[in-house]
Protein backbone atom coordinates (compact mmCIF):
# COMPACT_ATOMS: atom_id res chain seq x y z
CA UNK A 1 0.00 0.00 0.00
CA UNK A 2 1.15 3.53 -0.77
CA UNK A 3 -0.40 6.71 0.63
CA UNK A 4 0.55 10.24 -0.39
CA UNK A 5 -0.53 13.53 1.16
CA UNK A 6 -2.03 16.50 -0.70
CA UNK A 7 -2.20 19.89 0.99
CA UNK A 8 -4.94 22.52 0.93
CA UNK A 9 -4.54 25.79 -0.98
CA UNK A 10 -6.25 29.18 -1.13
CA UNK A 11 -7.84 30.97 -4.12
CA UNK A 12 -5.09 33.59 -3.97
CA UNK A 13 -2.33 30.98 -4.02
CA UNK A 14 -3.55 29.12 -7.11
CA UNK A 15 -3.54 32.26 -9.27
CA UNK A 16 0.19 31.75 -9.80
CA UNK A 17 0.10 28.02 -10.55
CA UNK A 18 1.24 26.68 -13.89
CA UNK A 19 -0.05 23.46 -15.46
CA UNK A 20 2.48 21.22 -13.70
CA UNK A 21 1.74 22.75 -10.27
CA UNK A 22 -1.99 22.38 -10.79
CA UNK A 23 -1.74 18.73 -11.75
CA UNK A 24 0.60 17.93 -8.87
CA UNK A 25 -1.75 19.51 -6.32
CA UNK A 26 -5.14 18.27 -7.56
CA UNK A 27 -4.87 15.45 -10.10
CA UNK A 28 -4.63 11.81 -9.02
CA UNK A 29 -3.18 10.21 -12.12
CA UNK A 30 -3.07 6.52 -11.17
CA UNK A 31 -5.34 4.72 -8.74
CA UNK A 32 -5.28 1.14 -9.98
CA UNK A 33 -2.08 -0.89 -9.90
CA UNK A 34 -2.29 -4.69 -10.01
CA UNK A 35 -2.35 -6.23 -6.51
CA UNK A 36 -1.79 -2.86 -4.83
CA UNK A 37 -3.69 -0.33 -2.75
CA UNK A 38 -3.17 3.33 -3.67
CA UNK A 39 -4.37 6.10 -1.33
CA UNK A 40 -4.29 9.90 -1.44
CA UNK A 41 -4.86 11.74 1.84
CA UNK A 42 -6.12 15.30 1.31
CA UNK A 43 -6.04 18.07 3.91
CA UNK A 44 -9.41 19.20 2.56
CA UNK A 45 -11.77 17.67 5.14
CA UNK A 46 -9.20 14.86 5.70
CA UNK A 47 -10.69 13.16 2.64
CA UNK A 48 -9.07 9.94 1.40
CA UNK A 49 -9.34 8.80 -2.23
CA UNK A 50 -8.15 5.33 -3.14
CA UNK A 51 -8.02 2.45 -5.55
CA UNK A 52 -7.77 -1.27 -4.72
CA UNK A 53 -7.02 -3.67 -7.58
CA UNK A 54 -6.87 -7.29 -6.38
CA UNK A 55 -5.90 -9.54 -9.28
CA UNK A 56 -3.97 -12.58 -8.00
CA UNK A 57 -4.76 -12.24 -4.29
CA UNK A 58 -7.01 -10.56 -1.76
CA UNK A 59 -5.74 -7.29 -0.29
CA UNK A 60 -6.06 -6.13 3.32
CA UNK A 61 -6.82 -2.44 3.93
CA UNK A 62 -4.65 -1.22 6.79
CA UNK A 63 -4.27 2.33 8.14
CA UNK A 64 -1.64 4.53 6.49
CA UNK A 65 0.83 6.43 8.66
CA UNK A 66 -1.20 9.63 8.24
CA UNK A 67 -4.04 8.18 10.36
CA UNK A 68 -1.99 7.36 13.47
CA UNK A 69 -4.68 4.72 14.08
CA UNK A 70 -4.77 1.07 15.11
CA UNK A 71 -7.03 0.17 12.17
CA UNK A 72 -8.34 1.97 9.08
CA UNK A 73 -11.86 2.72 10.37
CA UNK A 74 -10.94 3.50 13.97
CA UNK A 75 -12.17 7.07 13.47
CA UNK A 76 -13.48 6.92 9.89
CA UNK A 77 -16.22 5.72 7.55
CA UNK A 78 -15.69 4.24 4.09
CA UNK A 79 -17.52 4.26 0.76
CA UNK A 80 -16.65 1.79 -2.01
CA UNK A 81 -17.87 1.59 -5.61
CA UNK A 82 -16.73 -1.26 -7.86
CA UNK A 83 -15.76 -0.13 -11.37
CA UNK A 84 -14.40 -3.50 -12.54
CA UNK A 85 -15.35 -7.17 -12.53
CA UNK A 86 -17.29 -8.90 -9.76
CA UNK A 87 -15.65 -8.40 -6.41
CA UNK A 88 -15.78 -9.60 -2.82
CA UNK A 89 -15.36 -7.38 0.24
CA UNK A 90 -15.04 -9.00 3.67
CA UNK A 91 -15.85 -6.82 6.68
CA UNK A 92 -15.06 -8.35 10.08
CA UNK A 93 -15.74 -11.81 8.69
CA UNK A 94 -18.92 -10.95 6.80
CA UNK A 95 -18.70 -11.24 3.01
CA UNK A 96 -20.34 -8.93 0.47
CA UNK A 97 -20.35 -9.62 -3.27
CA UNK A 98 -20.11 -6.26 -5.05
CA UNK A 99 -20.95 -6.11 -8.75
CA UNK A 100 -20.06 -3.53 -11.39
CA UNK A 101 -21.23 -0.04 -10.39
CA UNK A 102 -22.49 -1.26 -7.02
CA UNK A 103 -21.52 0.36 -3.72
CA UNK A 104 -20.72 -0.66 -0.17
CA UNK A 105 -20.81 1.58 2.89
CA UNK A 106 -18.71 0.55 5.89
CA UNK A 107 -19.15 2.43 9.14
CA UNK A 108 -16.75 3.51 11.83
CA UNK A 109 -15.33 0.80 14.09
CA UNK A 110 -15.03 -2.10 11.64
CA UNK A 111 -11.55 -3.58 11.95
CA UNK A 112 -10.80 -6.18 9.28
CA UNK A 113 -11.29 -5.17 5.65
CA UNK A 114 -10.34 -7.50 2.78
CA UNK A 115 -10.84 -6.94 -0.96
CA UNK A 116 -10.77 -9.67 -3.61
CA UNK A 117 -11.94 -10.55 -7.12
CA UNK A 118 -14.33 -13.34 -8.08
CA UNK A 119 -12.30 -14.01 -11.24
CA UNK A 120 -8.68 -12.98 -11.76
CA UNK A 121 -9.34 -12.83 -15.51
CA UNK A 122 -11.91 -10.08 -14.86
CA UNK A 123 -10.66 -8.48 -11.64
CA UNK A 124 -12.60 -6.03 -9.52
CA UNK A 125 -11.53 -2.41 -9.24
CA UNK A 126 -12.62 -0.90 -5.96
CA UNK A 127 -12.74 2.90 -5.96
CA UNK A 128 -12.98 4.23 -2.41
CA UNK A 129 -13.57 7.43 -0.48
CA UNK A 130 -13.12 7.77 3.27
CA UNK A 131 -13.83 10.59 5.72
CA UNK A 132 -13.60 11.13 9.49
CA UNK A 133 -16.63 9.80 11.38
CA UNK A 134 -18.14 10.51 14.80
CA UNK A 135 -20.73 7.73 14.95
CA UNK A 136 -21.02 4.04 14.01
CA UNK A 137 -23.48 3.21 11.24
CA UNK A 138 -24.13 -0.30 9.86
CA UNK A 139 -22.43 -1.73 6.81
CA UNK A 140 -24.73 -1.76 3.78
CA UNK A 141 -24.51 -3.03 0.23
CA UNK A 142 -26.19 -0.57 -2.18
CA UNK A 143 -27.07 -1.79 -5.66
CA UNK A 144 -28.23 0.32 -8.58
CA UNK A 145 -31.81 -0.65 -7.70
CA UNK A 146 -31.35 0.88 -4.25
CA UNK A 147 -30.05 4.19 -5.57
CA UNK A 148 -32.00 7.40 -5.82
CA UNK A 149 -31.98 8.11 -9.55
CA UNK A 150 -32.44 11.52 -11.17
CA UNK A 151 -32.23 12.38 -14.87
CA UNK A 152 -31.17 15.94 -15.73
CA UNK A 153 -30.14 18.04 -18.71
CA UNK A 154 -30.99 17.64 -22.35
CA UNK A 155 -29.39 16.64 -25.64
CA UNK A 156 -29.84 20.22 -26.86
CA UNK A 157 -27.44 21.46 -24.18
CA UNK A 158 -25.11 18.42 -24.42
CA UNK A 159 -25.66 17.46 -20.77
CA UNK A 160 -28.32 14.74 -20.75
CA UNK A 161 -27.27 12.59 -17.80
CA UNK A 162 -28.42 10.16 -15.14
CA UNK A 163 -27.39 10.77 -11.54
CA UNK A 164 -27.29 7.69 -9.31
CA UNK A 165 -27.22 8.76 -5.66
CA UNK A 166 -25.75 5.68 -3.97
CA UNK A 167 -24.38 6.65 -0.56
CA UNK A 168 -26.45 9.68 0.41
CA UNK A 169 -28.65 10.57 3.36
CA UNK A 170 -31.86 9.71 1.47
CA UNK A 171 -30.62 6.13 0.92
CA UNK A 172 -28.74 5.33 4.15
CA UNK A 173 -27.29 7.11 7.19
CA UNK A 174 -23.68 8.34 7.08
CA UNK A 175 -21.68 10.76 9.19
CA UNK A 176 -20.53 13.07 6.39
CA UNK A 177 -19.53 11.00 3.38
CA UNK A 178 -21.72 11.11 0.27
CA UNK A 179 -21.06 9.30 -3.00
CA UNK A 180 -22.82 8.83 -6.29
CA UNK A 181 -22.30 8.16 -9.97
CA UNK A 182 -23.28 10.26 -12.98
CA UNK A 183 -23.60 8.66 -16.42
CA UNK A 184 -23.56 10.86 -19.52
CA UNK A 185 -25.88 9.83 -22.34
CA UNK A 186 -24.34 9.21 -25.80
CA UNK A 187 -23.94 12.56 -27.51
CA UNK A 188 -23.72 14.48 -24.24
CA UNK A 189 -20.41 15.62 -22.76
CA UNK A 190 -21.04 18.31 -20.10
CA UNK A 191 -21.35 17.40 -16.44
CA UNK A 192 -22.45 19.59 -13.52
CA UNK A 193 -23.48 22.45 -15.77
CA UNK A 194 -24.60 25.00 -14.68
CA UNK A 195 -21.62 24.82 -12.34
CA UNK A 196 -21.80 25.46 -8.61
CA UNK A 197 -19.77 25.81 -5.45
CA UNK A 198 -20.48 24.71 -1.86
CA UNK A 199 -18.28 26.25 0.81
CA UNK A 200 -19.36 23.68 3.40
CA UNK A 201 -18.23 20.66 1.37
CA UNK A 202 -15.24 19.61 -0.70
CA UNK A 203 -15.52 17.07 -3.50
CA UNK A 204 -13.53 14.56 -5.51
CA UNK A 205 -14.42 13.45 -9.05
CA UNK A 206 -13.30 10.12 -10.50
CA UNK A 207 -13.70 9.83 -14.28
CA UNK A 208 -14.04 6.41 -15.92
CA UNK A 209 -15.56 4.76 -18.99
CA UNK A 210 -13.67 7.36 -21.00
CA UNK A 211 -13.13 5.66 -24.40
CA UNK A 212 -9.59 5.00 -25.56
CA UNK A 213 -8.15 8.03 -27.32
CA UNK A 214 -10.64 10.41 -25.67
CA UNK A 215 -10.24 12.78 -22.69
CA UNK A 216 -12.19 14.90 -20.24
CA UNK A 217 -11.42 18.54 -19.56
CA UNK A 218 -12.20 19.22 -15.88
CA UNK A 219 -12.93 22.82 -14.90
CA UNK A 220 -12.16 24.19 -11.45
CA UNK A 221 -11.41 27.47 -9.66
CA UNK A 222 -13.55 30.35 -8.45
CA UNK A 223 -16.43 31.17 -10.83
CA UNK A 224 -14.72 34.36 -11.96
CA UNK A 225 -11.24 32.75 -12.22
CA UNK A 226 -11.71 29.29 -13.73
CA UNK A 227 -8.92 26.90 -14.69
CA UNK A 228 -8.87 23.49 -16.38
CA UNK A 229 -7.15 20.10 -16.10
CA UNK A 230 -7.06 17.56 -18.92
CA UNK A 231 -7.82 14.08 -17.55
CA UNK A 232 -7.67 10.53 -18.82
CA UNK A 233 -9.63 7.37 -18.03
CA UNK A 234 -9.67 6.25 -14.37
CA UNK A 235 -8.14 9.43 -12.99
CA UNK A 236 -9.47 11.52 -10.11
CA UNK A 237 -9.32 15.20 -9.24
CA UNK A 238 -9.64 17.03 -5.90
CA UNK A 239 -12.00 20.01 -5.82
CA UNK A 240 -11.55 22.61 -3.04
CA UNK A 241 -14.73 23.87 -1.30
CA UNK A 242 -14.37 27.30 -2.91
CA UNK A 243 -14.06 25.86 -6.43
CA UNK A 244 -16.49 24.93 -9.16
CA UNK A 245 -16.25 21.32 -10.37
CA UNK A 246 -17.45 20.63 -13.87
CA UNK A 247 -16.23 18.92 -16.99
CA UNK A 248 -16.65 18.35 -20.71
CA UNK A 249 -15.36 15.33 -22.60
CA UNK A 250 -14.46 14.56 -26.17
CA UNK A 251 -16.95 11.70 -25.74
CA UNK A 252 -19.58 10.71 -23.20
CA UNK A 253 -18.24 9.08 -20.01
CA UNK A 254 -19.13 8.27 -16.40
CA UNK A 255 -17.86 9.79 -13.18
CA UNK A 256 -18.13 9.15 -9.46
CA UNK A 257 -18.51 12.08 -7.11
CA UNK A 258 -17.63 11.94 -3.45
CA UNK A 259 -18.28 14.72 -0.93
CA UNK A 260 -17.32 15.51 2.64
CA UNK A 261 -18.21 18.41 4.89
CA UNK A 262 -20.42 19.68 7.63
CA UNK A 263 -23.82 19.01 6.05
CA UNK A 264 -25.66 16.22 4.25
CA UNK A 265 -28.02 18.35 2.15
CA UNK A 266 -27.38 17.32 -1.45
CA UNK A 267 -29.06 20.50 -2.72
CA UNK A 268 -26.89 22.86 -0.64
CA UNK A 269 -25.00 24.73 -3.35
CA UNK A 270 -24.47 28.15 -4.88
CA UNK A 271 -25.27 27.87 -8.58
CA UNK A 272 -23.19 29.87 -11.07
CA UNK A 273 -25.11 30.99 -14.14
CA UNK A 274 -23.38 29.92 -17.34
CA UNK A 275 -22.97 33.47 -18.75
CA UNK A 276 -21.31 34.57 -15.47
CA UNK A 277 -18.43 32.09 -15.62
CA UNK A 278 -15.06 33.55 -16.51
Automatic annotation (TrEMBL):
Top-rank EC class of the record's enzyme: isomerase
Pathway connected to this protein: Glycan metabolism; pectin degradation; 2-dehydro-3-deoxy-D-gluconate from pectin: step 4/5
CC cofactor note: Binds 1 zinc ion per subunit.
NCBIfam families, alphabetized: PRK00924.1 (NF002091)
Catalytic activity, as annotated: 5-dehydro-4-deoxy-D-glucuronate = 3-deoxy-D-glycero-2,5-hexodiulosonate
EC number(s) from the headed UniProt entry: 5.3.1.17
Record protein name field: 4-deoxy-L-threo-5-hexosulose-uronate ketol-isomerase
Amino acid sequence: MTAETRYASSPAEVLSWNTAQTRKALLIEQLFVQDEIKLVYSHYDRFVTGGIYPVSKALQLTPPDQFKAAFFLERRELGIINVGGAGVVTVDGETYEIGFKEALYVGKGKKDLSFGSKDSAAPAKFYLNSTPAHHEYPTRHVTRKDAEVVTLGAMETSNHRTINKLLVSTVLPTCQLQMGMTELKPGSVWNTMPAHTHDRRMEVYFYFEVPQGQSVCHFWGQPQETRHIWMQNEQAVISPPWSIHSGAGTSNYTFIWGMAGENLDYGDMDVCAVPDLK
